[in-house]
Amino acid sequence: MQAQGLKRAGLPGDPGLWVFILADMTAFALFFLLFTLGRMGDPALFEQSRLALDPAFGIANTLILLTSSWMMVQAVEAVRTGSRRRALLFLVLTIGIGLGFAVTKIVEYAGKIQAGITMLTNDFFMYYFAFTGIHFLHFVIGIGALLVTLAKARSAPMDDGMRRWTESVGCYWHMVDLLWIMLFPMLYLQRLS
Amino acid sequence: MVDDFRHVRFCAWNGMIFMAVFILFWGVMGHNIPPWAGDLPAKVVADWFRAEQNIIRTGMVISMTFTVCYCVWGLAIGKVMRHVTGPHSILLELQIWGAGLTVVPVLVSNSFWLAGAYRPEALPDETLQMLYDLAWLLIDLGYSVTSVQMIALGVGFLQDKREQPLMPKWVCWYSIWVGFMFTAECLMPFFKTGPFARQGILNYWIEFSIFFIYAPIITWYILKAIPRLEREVADAGARA
Amino acid sequence: MSAAVRHLAATGPWALLVIATLASGWLTHDLTDGRWSTALVILIASFKIRLVVVHFMEVTWGPRAWRLALEIWVLLATAIILAGYLLPSP
Hints:
- The structure holds three protein chains of three kinds.
- Chain A is mostly helical.
- Chain A has helices spanning 17-41, 43-50, 55-80, 84-114, 123-155, 160-189.
- The radius of gyration of chain A is 19 Å and the shape is elongated.
- Mean pLDDT of chain A is 91; it is low at 1-9.
- Chain B has one domain (8-227).
- Chain B is 73% helix and 0% strand.
- Chain B is built from nine helices and no strands.
- Chain B is elongated.
- The model of chain B has no long low-confidence stretch (mean pLDDT 96).
- Chain C has helices spanning 3-27, 34-56, 64-86.
- In chain C, helix 1 packs antiparallel against helix 2 and helix 2 (34-56) runs antiparallel to helix 3 (64-86).
- The model of chain C has no long low-confidence stretch (mean pLDDT 84).
- Chains in contact: A-B, A-C.
- At the A-C interface, helix 1, helix 3 and helix 6 of A face helix 1, helix 2 and helix 3 of C.
């Protein structure tokens, strides 16, 4: 049985994956910069456009991803202790709760498009759709990776390889979570004073 | 595994030949660093075709001739990758096909720039603008064939069980990441200004830079891998 | 540490994250001064990201270089947005 609570020598998951994670986070930092510069260029337009967004969606999405991440932490721990049933349970919860994000996102996008707002409407909405869209793509890939993990958890041995895989997917999923944590206030909550 | 590494080093160097030719002949002579902005009037692009036709012709002719080097490079990568994934992995074919198919958007788009420079004096401004737009739409949106190559390369080399992998793990992940990052090019046709346009900070400067860094890094490790594999094959042969 | 205690170890940060999220939502009401509440919301986001990095991603246990890289990222991301928000427009 894997020893719990002991400090491991390195980062959880595959070390190379952290290059991917850091590269992706750097890309999003650039997105933050682009949005910030755009906002500084026309704060009135950005404020007017921002008011068309409903923060309730943003808050719901944040809570969904946070809770899904929390479930993932439990799933990783279950794999570490070799508990297959617990791992399956928490993976299902991670995915199930996580899918709520897709529902709210689709509802939100649909609402905007029906109201005639698209990424071509103005610069604010260009950034809004592009960056939440690219984030959503990351989310979809994450769900895919989680489904693969679920399949593996059903039959694969709970060995070192499985642990590393699950930790890696977990780290990627937490990245999806933390990127949204910043995207949300940046897009939805910056009030013009 | 028995293997033959003759000419593989030369094929690996084709990656750098492609890059060098592409930068000078397509990039500089073809006015593609950066390209003409999407929101410019047709006259600007048309006048450029007319004023620089011989430079453009020369640039594109050489660029088109050497485009195939990218495929040759992919085959060299495949030769090394065989010794990581084994000869039966489909990842081998995905990488090779990805590299080979990358030749298509590059070659064909170059022919549109060339066509614009062939008899620009006889064509209206809008037609010349369209040829230029056509070229850029193809070269940008043909990205997914290259993504297939990059992702297959990364996933394949990640399977390396050697103490010191032939391709370091971070390079494999970088390759996968670039392959995915290219998807942002899907935004390009919707914008003529801003970061997502063909000349924009994201869809031109970032996307092309991460690609141009990628090729020398891969080439470096492929060249280092060849002598290692020659020794491995020789040792295995001696033991047999 | 038993599995149950580790389970609790992630629950604490999660609860804190939820509270911080709801607080951010409340801060955006018209009752509060726009400028400072927005700045606070951004800082809260920064704090939340650090919670995820440390407690969910468990980066405390990794090589210092990675911990540093992630901390710098959080700092930079926060600085970019905050500076852009607080600086007067050109």
